[in-house]
Amino acid sequence: MSTPQEARFHSEPTPDGEQFLLPGVPPLSLRQRLALLIAAPLGPRVPQKPLNIGLFDEDARNQLSLF
User: Fold this and answer.
1) Rounded CA gap, 36 and 30, in Å?
2) What is the model's pLDDT at position 4?
């Protein structure tokens, strides 16, 4: 038999595990979740290469002095 407190809280399964829902707060629909993903800023597909020229050339700083 469930207690009155357990009866008030609903839950939904998510990839992170079981999530409890607060009373009066509806769960996010699939449409709302997709809208959040669409509104998110784009990220790079490939990591950016370092700028190793001139002032920012860390490889040249690590070389030993020849003179």
Assistant:
1) 10
2) 54
Residue type present at position 52: N
Phi then psi for 13, rounded to 5 degrees?
A: -80, 135
Rg (CA), the chain: 26
DSSP notation for 22-59 = -TT-PPPPHHHHHHHHHHSPP--SSPPPP--SGGG-HH
Determine contact, residues 36/48, Cβ cutoff 8 Å.
Answer: no
Residue 12, SS3?
Answer: strand
Q: How many residues does the chain have?
A: 67
- Which pTM does this prediction carry? 0.42
d(CA 8, CA 23): 7
Question: Maximum Cα–Cα distance for the chain, whole Å?
Answer: 85
